[in-house]
Design the sequence.
């Protein structure tokens, strides 16, 4: 237990919603979202360099030549980040603010960016209570709707619960050319509603969850989403594909929202047959 408290106490968090200069307050939501997306890429690049050191931390000879590159990557990232005005420890967090977590521990982790976006919901004595919102990557924007992974999962889970089903694997792909979203779901066994009904139900939930999505759908700029039921085992097939591409199985996490142009796994090949 003591070790856990040490890890928490020395965690360093980079605020993506902290105190801003006046010029930052003047940015509209689209500019702010673009800044956060750019910052996520920047921090991922720096994190990759740091992770190379972490992976060989027990071998000083292997780690030593990697450290200058990692420090240089962190310095470069510090100069490029747009939304973060500084870093703060746990005692500087504010209720209602959103943060990215960067962990440093005495056992070897050094400024480890885990790409988790969290919100401070309150405090237990002096300890902040953090709510996981989503992975930092989980944002798409086709026509200005700025859809978040958390909104997609909320909509899908509510619709599936109403149908008496569980979603075992979910992927929403933003098709920029067609200007609409395509939803893929691997569900538990049961009576599945027609895909058109599924798409309409999720669409209605997203209207209620995201005012920009509602506006773009009402204006016709964003087309109606489509839905596809996936055959059993698709989620596992996707995981095997990602591991084969280089992801570590023990660290595998699925993002439920992505751009179609960058998604290389062929989900349509796993469409459930009628």
Sequence:
């Amino acid at each position: 237990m003591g070790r856990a408290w040490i890890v928490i106490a020395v965690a360093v968090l980079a605020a993506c919603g902290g105190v801003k200069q006046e010029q930052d307050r003047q940015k509209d939501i689209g500019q702010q979202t673009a800044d956060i997306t750019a910052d996520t890429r920047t921090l991922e690049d720096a994190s990759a360099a740091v992770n190379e050191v972490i992976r060989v931390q027990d071998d000083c000879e292997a780690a030593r030549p990697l450290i200058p590159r990692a420090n240089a990557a962190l310095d470069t990232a510090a100069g490029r980040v747009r939304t973060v005005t500084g870093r703060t420890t746990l005692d500087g967090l504010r209720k209602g603010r959103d943060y990215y977590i960067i962990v440093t521990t005495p056992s070897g982790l050094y400024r480890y960016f885990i790409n988790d976006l969290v919100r401070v919901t309150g405090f237990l004595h002096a300890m902040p209570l953090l709510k996981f919102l989503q992975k930092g990557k989980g944002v798409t924007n086709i026509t200005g709707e700025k859809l978040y992974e958390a909104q997609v999962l909320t909509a899908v889970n509510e619709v599936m619960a109403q149908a008496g089903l569980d979603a075992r694997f979910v992927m929403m792909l933003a098709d920029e050319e067609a200007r609409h979203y395509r939803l893929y779901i691997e569900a538990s066994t049961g009576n599945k509603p027609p895909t058109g009904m599924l798409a309409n139900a999720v669409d209605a939930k997203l209207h209620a969850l995201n005012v920009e999505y509602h506006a773009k759908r009402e204006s016709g700029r964003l087309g109606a989403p489509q839905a596809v039921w996936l055959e059993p085992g698709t989620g596992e097939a996707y995981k095997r594909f990602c591991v084969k591409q280089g992801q570590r199985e023990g660290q595998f996490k699925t993002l439920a929202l992505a751009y179609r142009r960058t998604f290389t796994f062929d989900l349509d090949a796993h469409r459930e047959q009628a």
In short: Residues 29-55 form the longest helix (27 residues). Confidence is low (pLDDT under 50) at residues 1-26. The chain has two domains: 2-135, 139-270.
